[in-house]
Amino acid sequence: MSELRAINLGQIINGINRGPTPVRILWQEEESLAFVARGRKHRSEFHIDPSDEVMYMLKGDMELHYVTAEGERKVAVIREGEIIHCPAGIPHSPRFSPDAFVLVLERKRRTGEQDRFLWFCEQCDSPLYETSRRVSDYHEDPVSRAYEEFYSVEARRTCSRCGHVTPRPNP
């Protein structure tokens, strides 16, 4: 067994602020995964996890957009110091500013499990694009890879129902 060590979340936040990546993995073990994430500008996709997810707002507030089993869109507000449980399979979109930070606890993905990422048209709410991937290592930043895939091709951002083109976010 390895030596147990405590992690200073303030130091983690400072490190993320100084670096280029919005996520710092705290651990990635056989049964659990923990990371701290900084908010992203223009977060727009809905993520569907194959496992439950627990989010604790370390700094700032979050609007957690989600879709119910009946297809209804809702928003849960998580304030600094609050925690929320998001069950597996719930499409959710954590939206919070780049100066806010969340601690996320999940079960590491099992063989064959896929994470799904969905985008909807900003104008008519029709599905725009969906991608899935096997997330075996969170160091690969799967959310950023999904964003690159979506924004790199205009046809993926173009609504087949109303013709609206989702613009690329400005850096």
Briefly summarize what is shown:
By secondary structure, this protein is mainly β. The chain contains two helices and eleven strands.
Describe the fold and architecture.
With 171 residues, the protein is mostly beta strands. The chain has 2 helices and 11 strands. The protein has a 5-stranded antiparallel beta sheet with strand order 1-2-9-4-7, covered by helices on one side. Strands 3-10-11 form a 3-stranded antiparallel beta sheet, covered by helices on one side. Strands 6-5-8 form a 3-stranded antiparallel beta sheet, with no helix packed on it. A hairpin with a 5-residue loop joins β5 (62-67) and β6 (73-78). The chain is globular and about 55 Å long. The termini are far apart.
